[in-house]
Every structure is written in structure tokens, then in C-alpha cells.
Design brief:
Belongs to the carotenoid/retinoid oxidoreductase family. The strands form four sheets. This protein has a five-stranded antiparallel β-sheet. Strands 3-4-5 form a three-stranded antiparallel β-sheet, with no helix packed on it. Strands 1-2 form a two-stranded antiparallel ribbon. Helix 2 (13-24) packs parallel to helix 7. The mean pLDDT is 93. It has two domains: 84-144 and 293-354, FAD/NAD(P)-binding domain; 149-288. With 356 residues, it is α+β, with helices and mostly antiparallel strands. Strand 3 (86-91) and strand 4 form a beta hairpin. It is globular, with a radius of gyration of 22 Å. The protein has twelve helices and twelve strands.
Length: 356
């Protein structure tokens, strides 16, 4: 349990709760849920430019990372087809992958196919079920993809000023504006209560909020004096109690709750808002192909990690379809912006390619 780990090392409840957010981030779990300690480890392992456990912003927004990868690939002869949806994987007579078919009917032939889509999309939508072992299909169908995350992007006309650290008179950013700011995290019990509400189908009445202001470090993201505020919030269930859907009323009601909370910490925040974009779990699934809205393509629980990700005996990136590889967050070692699954899958694919 994460709670036991934090109690062993720390005394301050706000510090424990702030650290606990990284143990439940993207997970429909509480700090008291068994296995939550691993999710914290997953978020602090590794390093950035020699600093262990460090994180960083991507200049230009997260899309700039995709562009950097794309440029590296095209520089080595790759051809990238954007906005070209894949309809299904093309199979040979022996059931091996031979390329993909696009929605417009175009066939793209290849000796190997690597998918960084979720296991559910890859194996339940793009491959004929009769080509896969029955127990494998059942395992993919049963993956826990519950997600508590609602992402809210906000445009504001001035920098938030927090009661705990008011802005300077000139309105220039202070050190805390360059960090991740955790709200409603005064104690782990608050996080547990927020989780419990969502587990019963109700959006948290006092949500866990991770607030960051990327435009402080990357001024090009907003006009002078204005800022972009990114809110990573939970807990919100994919399915609301009583079978209600996330309609505009439900989305705005939850966002208002989040904004009311921020207002308590930073009076004047609501008045500074120019626009907001609310992405609930169903929105994250529809727009980005995240199953259940899960940012990791599936829960980072101990029964879905290591040799069991995405399924026992298929954690080595190869799939039941010869020549088809899984290289996204649904593969070992799971989610996070680290590229480990892609790199490992590439190594396996290259090894196999040499024998074709």
C-alpha cells in the first residue's frame, strides 16, 4: 500500500498527499488501494538530463514531441501518412501480418506491422477474432481500463495569484508558477474520499487537481500577459450513476466544481478565464483512442504489468499474429512519456526482420 510507504518515510500529511497523487494519477484507485505504491514508483523512476525522477515540459506543447519523432523518422527515409485511419491489418494465408488496409481501401504492404494503438483497438478491431486464440481475446476484453481523469484546458487573461504565495506587483511569474501545483491534497484521506465518490458513479465533490501553467516556461503558447492553464483532475467515472451520460450539463457542472475549488486557493481565477476545454473519460476515448479514457491504455495494476501486459506470455511485444507487434502504452512496461515500450518493440521487430 502506498499509504504504508509514505507513513514510513514522512510525517507531513500535505507532503504525503502530494506525493500520493503520483500513485493514483490516471488510476481509478485510492492511496489505500493495494498496488498503488507501484504507480508512484513508475512516475519517479528514470531520469531527465541526469536528474533522477525529474520531469519536464515539452517546448511547443506535447505535439512537439511527436513532431520530433516524426522528423527523426523521415530523416531516415520513413513515410508518414497523417489523418489516414487504418481499417484492419492485412493477413496472409498463414495468418501472418502483411501490411494494413486504410479506410479509403488503400493497401499498404509490409513484412512487419507495429501498432501503438491500444491492445483493445489492435486485437479486437483491427484483427479478425478467428485469427486469435480464444483465451487471448478474452484476456484483452477483460482488461481493466477504468479511468478517473478529466482534463481541462483553460485560457486565462492573467497569471493566477494564490493566497499562499501572492503574485508580485509586476505580475511576473514566480517559481511556483513553473511547477506542478497540487490542490485539494491536504491529506490522503481527501484523495480517498474523492475516489470513493467516483467509485459510486459520482464525480468528486472535491476533486484532486494538478495544475500547471506551461506558458510560463513556453511564452509562445499564449499572447503576452495571457496564459494557458492545464488541469489534470480526478476522480470522474466513465459512467455516471443512474446510467446518465456526460452531457454538456454534467461536463460543465463538474468543471464548475473544479473552478470553485481553484477559486478558494486563488481568488480571481474564475474571472480571469477566457475559455475552457473539458475532456471527460468518454471524450478522451473518442478523440484519442484511449480505452475507457485511460491514459495508460489500461490500468497500471500489478495484475496488468510486467509478464501480464497485455496478456500472460505476450509481454514480449510479439502477438499471436506473426509479424504484428504491440509497441504502445498497453505493452510492457506501460504508460508514461518515456518511449520504453516503443524502443523495446523495435529491438524485437528488428531481430525478427533479420530472419525474414
Amino acid at each position: 500500500l502506498l499509504g504504508q510507504i509514505l507513513d514510513h518515510w514522512f510525517e507531513s500529511e500535505p507532503l504525503k498527499a502530494t506525493l500520493a497523487t503520483d500513485a493514483v494519477i490516471g488510476a481509478m484507485a485510492s492511496p489505500h488501494t493495494p498496488g498503488s505504491g507501484y504507480v508512484l514508483l513508475h512516475h519517479v523512476m528514470g531520469e531527465l538530463e541526469g536528474r533522477r525522477g525529474a520531469w519536464g515540459y515539452v517546448a511547443g506543447g506535447m505535439g512537439a514531441l511527436s513532431q520530433a519523432i516524426a522528423q527523426a523518422a523521415t530523416a531516415r527515409g520513413a513515410h508518414i501518412f497523417a489523418e489516414k485511419a487504418v481499417c484492419h491489418v492485412l493477413l496472409g494465408r498463414a495468418g501472418e501480418a502483411q501490411g494494413v488496409v486504410l479506410q479509403d481501401g488503400t493497401e499498404v504492404r509490409s513484412k512487419l506491422v507495429l501498432s501503438n494503438a491500444s491492445p483493445q483497438i489492435t486485437f479486437l478491431e483491427l484483427v479478425p477474432q478467428e485469427q486469435l486464440p480464444e483465451d487471448f481475446v478474452q484476456r484483452i476484453r477483460q482488461l481493466d481500463t477504468r479511468s478517473p481523469v478529466t482534463k481541462i484546458n483553460v485560457a486565462v487573461d492573467r497569471l493566477p495569484s494564490f493566497l499562499a504565495a501572492p503574485n508580485a506587483r509586476d505580475g511576473q511569474p514566480l517559481p511556483h508558477h513553473q511547477c506542478s501545483i497540487h490542490l485539494n491534497c491536504e491529506g490522503t484521506q481527501l484523495l480517498h474520499q474523492a475516489f470513493t465518490e467516483a467509485a459510486h458513479g459520482h464525480p468528486s465533490s472535491r476533486p484532486m487537481i494538478e495544475l500547471c501553467i506551461p506558458s510560463v516556461l513556453d511564452p509562445g503558447l499564449a499572447p503576452p500577459g495571457c496564459h494557458v492553464v492545464s488541469l489534470f483532475t480526478q476522480y470522474t467515472p466513465s459512467l455516471l450513476a443512474g446510467g446518465r451520460s456526460w452531457d454538456e450539463q454534467a461536463r460543465n457542472a463538474y468543471a464548475d466544481t473544479v473552478f470553485d475549488c481553484i477559486e478558494d486557493y486563488a481568488p480571481g481565477f474564475k474571472a480571469s478565464v477566457i475559455g475552457r476545454d473539458i475532456l471527460t473519460p468518454p471524450d478522451l476515448e473518442r478523440i484519442f483512442g484511449l480505452p475507457g479514457g485511460n491514459i495508460f491504455h489500461g490500468g497500471m495494476s500489478l495484475d496488468q504489468l510486467y509478464f501480464a501486459r497485455p496478456a500472460p506470455s505476450y509481454s514480449g511485444y510479439r502477438s499471436p499474429v506473426p509479424g504484428l507487434y504491440l509497441c504502445g502504452s498497453g505493452a510492457h512496461p506501460g504508460g508514461g512519456v518515456m518511449g520504453a515500450a516503443g524502443r523495446n518493440a523495435a529491438q524485437v521487430a528488428i531481430e525478427d526482420f533479420r530472419h525474414l
